[in-house]
Design goal:
Elements: H1 5-15, H2 17-28, H3 41-54, E1 58-62, H4 68-77, E2 83-88, H5 91-103, E3 110-114, H6 117-120, E4 128-133, H7 140-151, E5 152-161, H8 171-178, H9 182-204, E6 208-213, E7 219-224
Parallel strand pairs: 1-2, 1-4, 2-3, 4-5
Antiparallel strand pairs: 5-7, 6-7
Helix pairs in contact: 3-4, 7-9
């Protein structure tokens, strides 16, 4: 039997309409109008399920945006005393995320670091039980991977969003969204190349056991075994 993934996604969406409504309310309540994309409801659910299973004490997030994924994790982390460090490049977006954390009652669990992840990650001294990477500039994925694996505790979990984009037919739809801007188009193509490099690095890493799930735009799940 061949699955029609659009129908499957639509069916799952009907089962979890409340989650999608929650995400939409979060976005609607955000004052900032221009910000990076947030994870889909299906990815947020998967992350929350993993947190229930793993119960990580220390979580690192690369790419805060307006904090929807951060809040999704923090609501579960509160149940067992977990805390989150999240890194956001854009200061205005980070300030909005901080407001959202206050409004949703999870600010006490979250430390926000503002700046370039390439500069901040090497300064981190503690290890983490779970790391979630969803930085807007996908060119950072392969560049940061070895550092993130080093920060991950043995048995810890690395998650990465958007990792199926190299396998998707994005050209026509993205051309329309980018209004044929050559600079943005080049950035997109560079991002796809970097994601493919990242996927190959993850699949071949002797320190990790991983899989790539077809939810959202692709969610990589890897466990550190060495």
């Amino acid at each position: 039997m061949k699955l029609d993934f659009e129908k499957v996604a639509s069916y799952i969406g009907t089962l979890y309409q409340g989650d999608e409504a929650t995400k939409n309310r979060y976005i609607d309540d955000t004052e900032l109008t221009r910000f990076g994309t947030v994870v889909g409801s299906d990815v947020a659910r998967m992350m929350q399920m993993l947190l229930h299973l793993i119960r990580p004490d220390r979580i690192l997030e690369i790419g805060t945006s307006i904090g929807y994924s951060t809040v999704s994790m923090a609501r579960i982390a509160r149940e067992y005393g977990g805390t989150i460090t999240t890194i956001e490049y854009d200061e205005q977006t980070a300030r909005q995320a901080l407001k959202n954390f206050e409004q949703t009652g999870v600010a006490d669990l979250i430390e926000v670091k503002i700046g370039d992840a390439r500069e901040i990650v090497p300064t981190l001294k503690e290890s983490f039980d779970l790391i979630f990477q969803d930085v807007g500039d996908k060119r950072l994925y392969p560049e940061l991977l070895n550092s993130l694996v080093a920060l991950l505790k043995p048995g810890g979990v690395l998650l990465a969003e958007d990792s199926l984009l190299p396998a998707m037919d994005v050209e026509v739809s993205m051309l329309k969204n980018l209004n044929f801007d050559q600079a943005k188009w080049k950035h997109l193509m560079d991002s796809l190349v970097s994601l493919e490099e990242f996927n190959q690095m993850i699949a071949g890493c002797s320190s990790l056991r991983s899989t790539l799930l077809p939810i959202g735009d692709g969610l990589t799940i890897a466990v550190k075994i060495l």
